[in-house]
Amino acid sequence: MKYFFTVANISLLMSAIAASPLELTSPNPAKRQTNACGVWSPTTPERVGDGAPSYKTLNIQLSAPLSCASNHECAVGYGSYESVTIQAEVSGGKGWIDGGFSVSKTWETGNNYECGGVSGETICVMQEIPFTEYNAQGGVYNACTREFRGDKKIYRISSPNKSGQKFFCKNDGCVDKGTKTWV
Fold first, then answer.
1. CA-CA distance, 156 to 172, in Å (whole number)?
2. Domain definitions of the chain by residue range
3. Contact by Cβ (8 Å): 33, 24
4. Contact 126, 172 (CB under 8 A)
5. pTM
6. Tens digit of pLDDT for each residue in 83-97?
């Protein structure tokens, strides 16, 4: 017996398959699997509308507190440094040779911050980091149907701003190095 299929028959067969997704069944319902259209993937939270932004600042104490002795001035500092190396590399299976020449250069770069105080003060170095806080909502997404279902819960997300960080001296109220305070 021979079967002949026309383009219309194949098209009708394909639309019938797409309209009723296949489900592989197992005697054990816990092991049942469905096709990809039944898979919902969590999404990354996205801003809701304009996000209702608000702004706040995180202050971090970078140095240990230093108490200035009676009738004396004092200073406390904080440094942040990194080592940078530039070197030449040759590839091609012959191994590495320097030919007797200096083929790398290393230097250190960074910043140093210093605060001064007078008799009776406790001083420290602080860092101020501005943040923007906004409303966001997550959910699930079905790649097959391209449908998004949002969570009912609205999240409040705080993100550090790209610019605006600064360092400052605090002359009273210094506590422990690493203390973080929202203002």
1. 32
2. 45-93+104-182
3. yes
4. no
5. 0.57
6. 877 765 555 555 555
